Amino acid sequence: MAEFLEDPSVLTKDKLKNELTAHNVPLPSGEHKKEVYVQLYLKNLTILNNKKIPPVDTFSSDEELSTPVVSNRSRSGRKATKKTDKPRTEEVEVTELTDEDLKQQLAKHGVDTGPIVASTRKVYEKKLQKLLDEPAAEPGAPTDVTTLPKADSNQNGNTNSDNYSDKEDEEIPAPELEPVPVVEKPTRSRGKAPVTVRTSSRRQTKVVEEVVLEETPKKASKSVVEDILANEISTPTGISATCRRPIRGAAGRPLKPSEYWLDESRVQRTVHTESRTYAEMYSQPSSAVCSSKAPARRGFLSLLLKLLLLVLVCGSLYYAYQNLSSDQVDALKGLLDNVVIPVQSAVETAANYLGFSSSGSSAIVAPDN
Amino acid sequence: MPMMTLQFDLLRGGLCKLSRWISDTAMSSTSQKHKEFVAEPMGEKPVMALAGIGEVLGKKLEEHGFDKAYVVLGQFLVLKKDEELFRDWLKDTCGANAKQQRDCYGCLKEWCDAFL
């Protein structure tokens, strides 16, 4: 691959023309200023120095160059090199990116990367792959999916829940549940792919995974009961017959819940689910924390007590130090002596009993001052 | 005033013991290995001195060239002390489970906080 000049103005006009024709760049007819040829050179040839052709909306420094390149390509009919042909492929193939490009791609997703060296490359590739896969997964859908099939399976005995849990991105988005997508992903795929769980919401589910997997069966049973109850309560006519809920988006029904009489129940259900998921989201970290630190919790209370005691002792010491020269100290000393003397006598007797010499303890016998 | 100084000495000794006891209670969720590692500069300690890294994992790390604890520290620093990345790397390199990853990361992080 020939290296093209960054600053073609160092070449003469003729040389520029020759270079351009050599690379099948159509020249404007007639004589033009050198600047024209310089620009042509820059647009068509220098751009090929770069490893890839960036998309037009990003990489602002290359913005002007990319559009003419595209048009030139189509005009000249030159066989495009693979860099300009499929920019999307380059984005998707993380393993083929250079270190620099990997770094740029990660920066695009807001990831502050360190140096990409041999030992760190693989980790960053995986991270980028995960980031590229995530937006395609439609994270807003899962909880709705879990509630709908559960209720349906209870009423109709079908086993659609398994099918729904496989499909990540085909379900109806629930706008009010968007804040809780990542946590709900493991809930969704509970029975099926633990691998998916791990790769999708790694940070939270690494520790919380077991907790979530434990909780989801409970959640499933609870939510079904609650769904039925909610349905019973909200029915205006008081009829508690649980008929099949109309499928959203089917038979021309709008995706958003509108004026159906079951709408209330659905909204309530979603509200229930929402509150439950929020509670779950908050309880999960705390439960994870609890489960991993339950033994330390007991120690924490006693730690608090000890700290309090320490503060008290320090405070009293400081107070005593401040009042070192006052008469209060003498009074205190008197008090202390009253306390200490019996203690020391006990120590002395113990020492005598044990056969130690009491000469040391005689120094701490009753004070004379 | 010999009495007073003696009392102060007793108090001071008592306070020292109390503070050590408090710190021990606070760190009771970390293992002995962790405490030992974090207590001093790692020097030439082997990779198995890291918390969470036992014989099996240590051997695997050594096969990949990470034969001393400071080499793993190097990797940790190159990943900018990021928890997720380091844990991923650890899992990929030696197959550590979640607890082992957590212990190792915590150990290195605390060491860095103390000595770096």
From TrEMBL, chain A:
Keywords: Acetylation, DNA-binding, Membrane, Methylation, Phosphoprotein, Transmembrane, Transmembrane helix. The lineage of its organism: Eukaryota, Metazoa, Chordata, Craniata, Vertebrata. Residues 152-163 have a biased composition (Polar residues). Residues 91-135 form the LEM domain. This is Thymopoietin b. The keyword DNA-binding applies. The keyword Transmembrane helix applies. Residues 55-97, 133-202 are annotated as: Disordered. Coiled coil: none annotated. InterPro entries: LEM-like_dom, LEM/LEM-like_dom_sf, LEM_dom, LEM_domain. Residues 174-184 have a biased composition (Low complexity). The chain crosses the membrane at residues 303-321. Residues 82-91 have a biased composition (Basic and acidic residues). Belongs to the LEM family. Residues 5-48 form the LEM-like domain.
From TrEMBL, chain B:
Pfam families: SAM_BAF. This is Barrier-to-autointegration factor. It comes from Ilyodon furcidens (goldbreast splitfin). InterPro entries: BAF, BAF_prot, BAF_sf. The keyword Electron transport does not apply. It is found in: Nucleus. Keywords: Nucleus. The keyword Ligase does not apply. Its main location: nucleus.
